[in-house]
Hints:
The complex is a heterodimer of chains A (261) and B (153). By secondary structure, chain A is mostly helical. Chain A has helices at residues 9-35, 44-72, 78-84, 94-97, 103-124, 130-158, 162-175, 187-194, 201-218, 241-249, 251-255. Chain B is α/β, with parallel strands linked by helices and 153 residues long. Chain B has 2 domains: 10-91, GMP Synthetase, Chain A, domain 3; 106-150, no CATH class. Chain B contains 4 helices and 7 strands, in the order ααββαβαββββ. Chain B has a 4-stranded mixed beta sheet. In chain B, strands 1-2-3 form a 3-stranded mixed beta sheet.
Amino acid sequence: MDAPPHANRTHSNDALFAYTLRLGDNCLVLAQRLSAWVGHAPALEEDIAVANVALDMVGQAQLWLALAADLEGQGRNADDLAYGRDAGAFRNLLLVEQPNGDYAKTLMRQFLFDAWHHPMLVALAASSETRIAEIAAKAAKEAAYHLTRSRDLVVSLGDGTGESHDRMQAALATLWPYTGEMVLADPVDEALAVTGAAPDLATLAAIWSDAVGATLTEATLVRPADGYAQRGGKQGVHSEHLGYMLAEMQFVQRAYPGGTW
Amino acid sequence: MVVTGALPSTETVWTWLADVPDPEIPVLSLVDLGVIRDVVWHGDTLAVTLTPTYSGCPATGVIQFEVEQALRRHGIDRLELKRQLSPPWTTDWITPRGRAALKAYGIAPPGSTACPRCGSKTITEISRFGSTPCKAQYRCGDCLEPFDLFKCH
Lengths: 261, 153
């Protein structure tokens, strides 16, 4: 007997909602972090660059969160998801919510993320879920440019002065424990990988590790040993930093719900 | 009021859209930029399909507004604007006329390796990002002028 065409729809939409929320929240949270540099970056060119990367990521967040809201089917839109959820309902990776620190830490965070984000989007462009594939194909072109920039800067500053080298190495040590989560699959990742809607994270892990390893070598930076991987962001268990960031990001909509101008 | 028999042809609509400038780079029309993907009549409703350049480009909303304004000025009452993400916009869709307009305006067209002012091939990237998401900043080694280069995308 054939199953009715929508037999798995509820389950499937739940997983797709959870998954697209993760993709959108990664972009939104990192964009907000990067935006804090606007007007403060160490050089004019970097100020412009960081603003442009943030802008791309806000745009990507809008696309993913609009899709997530549609999949959820509760009448919420992308803005409701961005401004109306508390930290526990966010599903971003712990890496992207880490504080900006000095510019070395901001750049290292960007590179570690871009080196995952770009191959992830390339893989998602072949998703069996058309709406995911379309957004990913568009975002992948932007992410490729982000990766080229952050990779070049990691090499320039890692293999730069003694001061820049030490700062990049320190940033790497601080951020490394947050990288494992990117490639550790949970039931949502597995459910989507089975249907071809999302890639197998083990494949991504190898791509990320090779690319990061090659860049760190070129940057004369020492790759930290893999130890305990901090995780929980994808399930809504965040570091304390996220709440402070959201308090600032969401203030206007919290104070004046539905306000427009 | 639109009389069914008097609907303008889609070719005519394309010529109207070719007069609508891009809000951030006004020497380019929206047609030259390659963001108008389709123009079609559904009965007496005109459907125009637009594609965004960059996901977060702030001009996207303005472009929709400008298209709507322009078509209404030409008497189109029943209008549907659609967004299409796939295939993603590429600078390959900028028309030859658009490329020439960019160069004349002082912006090196995508893929260019020469200064748009003096034609020198001695150019250096200053910043991977420029005044809009679609451009990078370069400097000419001969005439020494800085200029925008439209990034290949």
